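Lab channel / #folding
Pinned by the channel admin:
"Please post every new chain as: sequence first, then the structure tokens as a reply. Keep commentary short and put observations after the output so the thread stays searchable."

First post following the new format, from NK:
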Amino acid sequence: MTAMLPSLALALLCLLRAGAEVPVQLGFNADEFAGTWHVAAVVSNCSMFLKMKDGMKSSITAISFTPEGDLAMKLVWPLLDRCQKFELVFQRRGQAGHYMAAQEKRDLCVMETDCSHHAIVHEFQQNGQEASAVLQLLTREQDVSPQLLQKFKELIPTLGLTKDMLAILPKSGECQEDQCTKAIR
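Reply from TO:
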């Protein structure tokens, strides 16, 4: 029992860190952030993601904002036999760049973005006793520079995640922008 205590303490520390406040991009500009993004890399401790990550491909995300400042996200993920479409709405929570999907207890923060090339987005979700964190690297083009990927990898341990939870998503010719645009309508 005594040998398990340090492991238990470390696990609790990771969960607390995953649920801690994540920094939001200062001066976040929703108008510049809106538009089409490619999901280039994802790291998460979500058990479903960990089972699927090795077979995942790059997806498309279209982001828009409501007049109230809420974030509307439409995703198109390539699956084995089809393109799966998802729609999520996050309500603005305090400063611009921080959003919450109350019905799903999902917290989303735009940690960093230059709005024209890349964005790093953190998501935290609490489902009963299970908490999961997701860190995504979004790019305007499907290509990602090695420097940007390295910067993304350096953030992973600071959020209580590990590099073995990382999926660098290969480019996909499936489920592209025209299908994402159709999903928006």
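NK: Residues 65 and 71 are 5 Å apart (CA to CA).
TO: also worth noting, The domain at 4-184 is CATH 2.40.128.20 (Lipocalin).
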